Amino acid sequence: MMDLTQPQWVKHVIFHPFEGYEDLRWKKGGTLKYTAVIIFALFVALIAWDRWCGFQFRPLPDVLFSVVPYLMKSLVYFGAWCVGNWAVCTLLDGEGTLKNITIYSSYALIPYIVCTFVNVVLSHLLVTDEAVFFYTIHYIGLLWTALLLFNAVKAVHQYSITKTVAAIALTICAMLIILFLAVLFLSLFQKVYVFFYSLYTEIVYRIQV
Amino acid sequence: MKHSVSRRMLAALAAVTLTVGAMPLSVHADEPYDVYNYNYLGEAVPSQAGYVAERAVSGIDLGTAAFSAPSDLCKDTDDCFYIADTGNNRIVKTDSEFQQVLKIYDTFTMPDGTQTKLNHPKGIYISPDTGLLYIADSDNARALIADADGMVQQVITKPDSPVYDQQLTFLPQKILCDNAGNVYIVLGNTTKGAAMFGADGAFIGYYGANTVKRTASAILNHFWNSHASQEERKYRVRNAPSPFDNFDIDTEKGFIFTSTSSGGSSMDAVKKVNPEGHNLFSYLSGFVWGDEFSTWYGGTSYQTKIVDIDIGDDQSINCLDTATGRVFQYDEEANLLFIMGTIGDQLGGFTQGGVSAVETKGAGCENIYVLDSMKGTVTIFSQTDFGETVHRATALYNDGKYAEALSPWLEVLKYDGSYRRAYIGVSSAYYNMGRYKESMDYAKKADASNRYNRAFAKYRAQFLKAHLTEILVGIVLLIVLVSVGKRIFRKRKKKPNA
To answer: Is A208 part of a structural domain of the chain?
Structure first.
């Protein structure tokens, strides 16, 4: 029973939000390869949402494009979520490994990504008066992903509902701390770099003179 | 061999493009300043000049004494100009081309036959209906209404009405009259608005005052004032609006446009006041007249200070900024058309804080005249071909003749590919002509998503109407194909098991 291939596992998890992850855990399904694909798809979806929308829905002026915020929103946030969740739940008697947390969380993102792509296509067919379809799909995707993410955390750590809520709240705090430290770290590195660079220019100048 | 030929051709092509590309630049070289315009994001972008400074005329050029601190410029229906030469206590009338002086008014004959002299007149206005001269004779504390021969018809002095604060002296600065003969006088010492007099010279009241902006500090100040005693209130700061210091009347429609230089309240900088005293530009909340950002010269920042305003015969609004010596021309819907002028000594440059009056001439606003009170000159700007095209297109567009405005807008785009309103104009024209695809393209170039949406809705309806059969047949075919395909797929899957 439940001898599913990897693509079938994805389908099973998404369409069975409540027991899907339990089955996945029981049968040790899921693979990191898919995680990589999903995160890349998320990255593309975020760009598509801002850039490939029908012009009538485009919120941003076509002036500047930087890939950094999109990398930040997909890769960095997701990474911070996984590490933060792992750090918090290890302390809270969670049973999940970092690998499993990553895999399960990434599978939960699929509805949001799919809905975003559907919206990008729809935005070329609708006018702004019909934007309600657009927003409905957007919120369905968002809620679905939130539900899956909740159950992913619950299943991977074998938590009760209340403990899952607490764990998610703490994870968000942990994410904020991680991002804060990352910013501090970056600015420190920049200062160090500037210091060594000025040292270098000074030495070069002395040698020349 | 083949390579070298194509390379030579490329070089020739590059040379041609370079020479062609360099041609319009030679036009730019005439101005002692960078011509710019604002895009819809509020960023200054380079643009083509709509006006170029043609020449500057001083009093000596006109064959009379040099102007001394001239402060107002006005035009009559015959396009003759009147300069309020304040320091020389006279009004100078010139011909329409500023070639010669036609008449100098320094003494007037009063109704009782006595002679009277002007004392630092600061405002002059010529009624287009009656041809009478309205003079704000500032240091004599009176306003004179005289005919072209210098016979005074009426004298307006300090009103003895209880509405007028009797402790204030009468300080007329600028003067106007409307179609009904009512006289409006900007006073130098009140924030209540312009003093308004009936055709018979009786004081009616104040007109078009600015309002105090409801900023946090103003509200707090009001709160404390309302709780202070009578004695305390004497020493407290009062909430008073900055008074407007210049105005012009749209002779066709009767609206008075006021300009306020002080206070920095961008809302009140230019107002379009209806006869009831309401500002019709109040819907432009957040709109900045003049430069969007304060500019910097030598460590000091200068914010736009609009000292004079002129309504052209084509309803264009011309604002004169004394801080940067620039004229900002807007169309009647307050869309920025052109910016000209600078601070400097060259032709087209003015003294810092010296410009005092702006005036326009021609049905299409062909000329703009700027009076510099420190230099004592009138600088004449004339329209370029680009300016003419933009004006023609704008006039048609504002009249709702979108389709007729198409060719001038396309011409504008040939001059300046970053002129956003031209893209909007072309988009509107194509929309009205039913060419929705092109309308969409141009709306996209103008970054106007609402216009794109409007055209897209029509385009979609048109497309659906034209291709309904194909679409329906396509959908049916797709359903059939999918169901048949599924059946075949299933059969194949079962075979290996069986």
So the answer is: no
